[in-house]
Amino acid sequence: MDKNLRKAVIAGNWKMNKTPAETTALINELKPLVENADCDIIVCVPYINLNAAIDAAKGSLIKVGAQNCHWEKSGAFTGEVSALMLSDIGIEYVIIGHSERRTYFGDTDLTVNKRTKAAIEKGLTVILCVGEYLEQREQGITFEVVRSQLKIALMGISEADLDKVIIAYEPVWAIGTGKTATAAEANEVNCAIRSLIAEMYSKENADKIVIQYGGSMNAKNADELLSEYDVDGGLIGGASLIAADFAAIIKAASK
Ligand code: PEP
Questions:
Q1: Whose CA is nearest to atom 1 of ligand 1?
Q2: Torsion-angle region of residue 209: left (phi > 0), alpha (psi -120 to 50) or beta?
């Protein structure tokens, strides 16, 4: 497998942070810092900031994504936003299955699958998050957990659809905790994910698919994590809210 087949993707998950005005300011600060980047850059902002982000990112390499979407086109789903609504305003990316959605908002492998299918149907690229809890790692069942999450999330996703999927391996114990998986731990799981894709689809699909690592990636550890063979980018929470730190990660991914 050839790492050079894949362009790194660095995505920021802003979570529930920033107002529209602060969104404009942060993207404006980031733009000059990343104008020579040689990786894909995405910022996934709260729904209410999507339009501000699209406007601020115009003319730059920065693409804009959402942090979730519902699987129905419309209807009686108070508080939800559909994939159709996102694509209609020009959004190209959406995070699906983030552990915070699974832990706090009842997302399950089956709803992750429904959201993934709906998003792809509307032309969005999905950043599909999987990862184990600390207890599961300690139990030695990390691979089983991640395999099962992926097998269910990808039910009904064709080989062609897979071009619209980025996988983010995010060990739950490393998200927002300052505790990072070692580069070897991240690579080991990413490698297992790539083998699963080869098994479920083909070697060609496995070679092509972008598999990110997420979990306390920052300006200091990005270089080491991103130099691993199967780590094709990062999904970054906290450090994506500081322009200089996010730009440093983008620089590490551009090497
Ligand atoms: C995330 O929210 O996906 C994430 C990885 O957060 P952090 O970088 O803050 O751990």
A1: 237
A2: beta
Listed as ranges, residues in the chain with pLDDT below 50 are: 1
- Of 100, 170, 185, 228, the catalytic one is 170
Q: Within the chain, what is the greatest distance between any pair of CA atoms?
A: 48
Give the CATH number of the domain where residue 143 resides.
3.20.20.70
Task: Confirm whether pTM is higher than 0.85.
Answer: yes
The whole-angstrom separation of Cα 6 and Cα 163 is 12
- Structural domain boundaries, residue 127: 9-67+77-253
Which residues are paired to 10 by β-bridges? Answer: 41, 234
Nearest residue to 133 (alpha-carbon basis) of 144, 125, 142 = 142
Q: Which numbered atom of ligand 1 lies nearest the CA of 170?
A: 5
Q: What residues contact 167, with CB distance under 8 A and at least 6 apart?
A: 128, 130, 150, 193, 197, 209, 210, 211, 212
